[in-house]
Amino acid sequence: MYAAVNGTRIYYEIIGKGRPLLMVHGNGEDHKIFDVAAGKLRERYKVYLVDLRGHGKSDRIDEYHYSDMAEDLNVFMRMLNMNDVIYYGYSDGGIVGLLLAMKSDRITRLFVSGANLKFRGLTRRCRFMIASKYLFTRDPKLKMMMKEPDIDLIDLSHIKAKTMVLAGEKDLVRYEESKSIADAIPYATLRIINGENHGSYIVHSKKIADILMEELND
Asked: Domains of the chain (ranges plus CATH)?
């Protein structure tokens, strides 16, 4: 299915029944990375799987900004009359989730995995890899990652949703960055997943489903 938002069309699928759970992928990916997790989560939740603008089956675009993606989802939730939403975002989807939760009271539970506030919040090795790849590809999605996001810690204090910040023990995001995010959001918690890297417990994995179901069972 497609939703027309902010001058573009974003693709989405809905599976399951129950409280709405919006799952958002990372840079250069699409909703299919959650195939295994969504298959389990659908037993308890109404899972919304979205392709961000310029990704997957959504319309192509020339220029990428996290703020545009967040506003797309803000309109999307309003169009579908989604309330009391659980939001789970991975990597870029986590960044979008932070921006979205700052201005939307529709999100009451927020989970972000491997999100960063600034480009320097990534490990040095990761920054080098992104910059090197951009030199050869000129991929606008990589350009966005090098220039954005630009979120100040004070901005995170506006988030009202009950929040958990997740990261792998061997994540591409620096531990200090993940901790800073959790510390800046009122009453947020930080959970480091032992033995995992940036996406090993998320992409085509049921581990993230187990984590979400465990945390939401409080």
From this structure: 2-215 (3.40.50.1820)
